[in-house]
Design brief:
The complex is a heterodimer of chains A (about 170) and B (about 130). Chain A has a single domain, classed as 2-Layer Sandwich (Alpha-D-Glucose-1,6-Bisphosphate, Chain A, domain 4). Chain A is built from four helices and eight strands. Chain A has helices at about 25-35, 35-40, 140-150, 160-170; strands at about 5-10, 15-20, 50-55, 60-70, 75-85, 90-100, 115-125, 125-135. Chain B has helices spanning about 5-20, 20-30, 35-40, 50-60, 80-85, 90-115, and strands at about 65, 75. The chains are: A alpha+beta (about 170), B mainly alpha (about 130).
């Protein structure tokens, strides 16, 4: 049985994900911050791997993720900076998705499309609730980043879209 | 023209338009404010007619609108189709469900390792 995942938009600029895990929060914090662990789960749909995962876990330190599609060779990535590190309770990072190619190590982490991501972990009786809030500069940017991400890189194949559309018009 | 499409055709047009990296870059630029074709063409190694073709695709998908000033005709981002494609939240959920299902497996694995060799920083265990 899979735990329930909530996706909400608490404000026009935010996307929030809430999910419970049957694990202590220090392990979840590790899975979010240790590159050898991040690259094992933060992968999106089937077919994508994360060949590059670099994390400099210091305030002001950068991270860089590059995803690759094994079938098409397509690559995209995301870069950002650590703003606040309070292990294992809270992690604040910036994020800029680069959907057109693998971002190089020098890729700017800031831009009009960057978000501020706040992850909070609260633990009770061995169960940890993760709350991840992504805040964008505006509603337009949020919707655009979310949808372009879905349409391509992180996203679904068009075959999958066809299924959704078929269902919607049935 | 785009307003005569059915909702599913419009969603299809939106996603087709978004599937091209140049068009996404154009939209990202327009998210910061309106711009002329010349301004939009600037960062690309692409002819102005080629950029114009991309702009037409975005316009047909209703993702942008263009001003009527004869010379400049600045392009502007339109949020409406993006709102309509609110289906993105559902897809977002699917994506994160897949990620977190993998994280569950990894956490179980780490817990098993932790149980076998107690963590050094935990004074409760011995």
């Amino acid at each position: 049985m899979t735990a329930r995942l909530e996706v909400t938009t608490p404000t026009d600029r935010d996307i929030r994900i809430v999910r419970a895990f049957n694990a202590p929060r220090d392990l979840i914090f590790d899975c979010y911050t240790k590159p050898e662990l991040v690259s094992r789960w933060l992968l999106g749909p089937p077919g994508w791997s994360m060949p590059i995962c670099e994390v400099d876990l210091r305030v002001g330190g950068r991270y860089r993720y590059v995803w690759r599609n094994g079938a098409t060779g397509a690559e995209f990535g995301s870069v950002g900076e650590h703003r606040e590190i309070a292990a294992p309770i809270r992690l604040v990072t910036t994020e800029r998705m680069v959907l057109t190619a693998a971002p190089p190590p020098t890729e700017p982490t800031d831009g009009p499309d960057a978000s501020v991501n706040t992850m909070e972990l609260s633990e009770s009786g061995g169960l940890t609730t993760l709350t991840l809030t992504m805040r964008y500069p505006s509603k337009e940017v949020r919707d655009l980043v979310a949808q372009t991400g879905m349409a391509d890189g992180v996203g679904m194949s068009f075959a999958r879209l066809d299924e959704v559309l078929a269902e919607a018009s049935a | 023209m785009s307003y005569e499409m059915t909702p599913s055709q419009r969603l299809d047009a939106t996603f087709s338009a978004l599937a091209d990296p140049t068009r996404r870059a154009i939209l990202a630029r327009l998210a910061t404010g309106e711009a002329s074709v010349l301004q939009l063409a600037e960062p690309f190694a692409m002819s102005q007619p080629a950029i114009s073709r991309h702009i037409k695709v975005l316009e047909r998908a209703g993702l942008i609108s263009r001003g009527r000033q004869a010379q400049r005709r600045p392009s502007r981002l339109e949020a409406t189709p993006l709102v309509e494609a609110a289906a993105w939240i559902e897809r977002y959920r699917e994506l994160w469900e897949a990620n977190y299902a993998r994280l569950d497996v990894l956490l179980d694995e780490l817990k098993a390792i932790g149980a076998a060799e107690p963590r050094a920083q935990d004074p409760q265990r011995d």
